[in-house]
Amino acid sequence: MTATLLRGRLLGFVRRPENMDDRDSYAYEDDGGLLIEDGRIAAAGPYADVLAAAPADVDEIDHRPFLIMPGFIDTHVHFPQMQVIGAYAANLLEWLNTYTFPEECRFVEPEHAARIARHFYDEMLRHGTTTAAAYCSVHKASADAYFTEALKRGMCMIGGKVMMDRNAPQGLLDTPQMGYDETRAVIAEWHGKGRNHVAITPRFAITSTPAQMEMTATLAREFPDLHIQTHLSENDEEIRFTAELYPEAVDYTDVYARYGLLGPKSLFGHCIHLSEREADAMSEADAVAIHCPTSNLFLGSGLFPLKALSRREKPVRVGLATDVGGGTSYSMLKTLDETYKIQQLLGERLNPFESFYHMTLGNAEAVSLSDRIGTLEPGTDADLVVLDAAATPAMALRMEVVRSLADELFLLQTLGDDRAVRETYVAGKAMKAAL
Ligand code: GUN
Ligand code: ZN
Fold it and tell me: Signal peptide position in this chain (predicted)?
């Protein structure tokens, strides 16, 4: 058995912080030790205690003075959109039709899908992201490429072949039967293989006919434990068009509810403009609203009411995500920065502990995987990130006057990016140095 002992400053959350002074919501060790055995966390705590209990031949890696945290989790990202990040468009539908749909057509070529998948995982690891929930393209080959690469790297990844059968170029359309058959094939080949999780992935109501939504409903009934991911209430014109396409639904959320797609493993990208009725429906179903701040600002979609949704009498579960390529950064640190600024514009405060909770344990809870990832609890997978809040000259200068952990975290989210990520561990293996 191989054992590795990491030494550094340990920070892991045990629940959502209620305020800045909620010291019980996280565990912090100034001189911490984290013992890894067989890809899992065997112990975490004061360095001296963990060392005393470690095997005599343990390999030790000294990460002082850096912070060791659970790896970041990105709960909504599009891997076939790496080459359309930052494409100039007025709004969501123009961006999809002008750049994104044509780009995704290229994934009919397995070699292209395999190449972009390699780049995608490189970027995830460079930015400290150890788990993501991704949309592949409509082509089964894109899902094969995505999960092949996850398996190679030993990463815990969620993903799905997108289903879409209208309102897009011919090269990007399946049919209700094809979407069903290929999703079943992806599940059979990939779900549970390594650390892979397949998600049922109808792109959004606009690109699925009612017949395809019926097939999606069948899949959801046949595979009740799988994640479901789609888009909801992102843009005014999208909402209007959806109402036109599904006149029988009382609102956008109801379109998905009618097909049995609202449940605790349902991840709804955006959810910016939900009515009170829709938020109630999401809450009652325990469904998750995924906030994608850099995308929402870039496409001018709107300001997601994160704090307001979280403190409702019927709270809505929330996850944070990059939404690359509508999103403009792979960095979850940058994503926190923009999350913070959007709450500022809404007159709300998001403290740094809450932010870092969201990116780790909070997102693990959002994707129902907190028994495995997002924490430093013994027994969970050793997916970790090592962070340096003085990674650039500007950060180092600012750090000279930082006196508290809260201020250090806030600096990391405000000025940090991939340069602040010194190392990324996947199941106990250092991955960033090897890139
Ligand atoms: N709605 C449907 N597809 C997409 C997509 O690829 N990106 C975003 N941001 N919204 C969508
Ligand atoms: Zn998206």
Answer: none
Question: Cβ(296)–Cβ(342) under 8 Å?
Answer: yes
| Nearest listed ligand to the Cα of residue 75 | 2
Instruction: Name the one residue in this structure whose structure tokens are 């205690």.
Output: 49
CA–CA distance, 216 with 184 (Å, rounded to integer): 11
Q: Report whether residue 212 contacts ligand 1, using a CB cutoff of 6 Å.
A: no
Looking at residue 2, its pLDDT comes to: 82
- Which residue puts its alpha carbon closest to atom 9 of ligand 1? 326
pLDDT at 63: 98
**Predicted structure pTM score:** 0.98
Using most ligand atoms within 8 A of CB, pick from 231, 239, 241, 298 the residue to mutate for ligand 1: 231
DSSP state string for 318-345: EEE---BTTBS-S-HHHHHHHHHHHHHH
Taking CA atoms, 168 is separated from 1, 96, 99, 299, 361, in Å, by: 52, 9, 12, 19, 36
Q: For ligand 1, is residue 202 a contact (CB within 6 Å)?
A: no
Tokens of 194: 């390594």
Neighbours of 62 (CB within 10 A): 11
pLDDT of residue 271: 99
Looking at beta carbons, which pairs linking 51-60 to residues 24 or more positions away fall under 8 Å? 51/5, 54/3, 54/5, 55/1, 55/3, 57/3, 58/3, 58/4, 58/5, 59/2, 59/3, 59/4, 59/5, 60/4, 60/5, 60/6, 60/7
Q: Residue 318: beta bridge partners?
A: 289
Task: Enumerate residue ranges in the chain where pLDDT < 50.
Answer: none
pLDDT for 245-264, tens place per residue?
999 999 999 999 999 999 99
The answer to whether the beta carbons of residues 422 and 432 sit under 8 Å apart is yes
The length of the chain is 435
CA angle 167, 134, 114 (to 5 degrees): 90
**In whole angstroms, what is the distance from residue 267 CA to residue 261 CA?**
10
Q: Which residue owns the Cα nearest ligand 1 atom 3?
A: 203
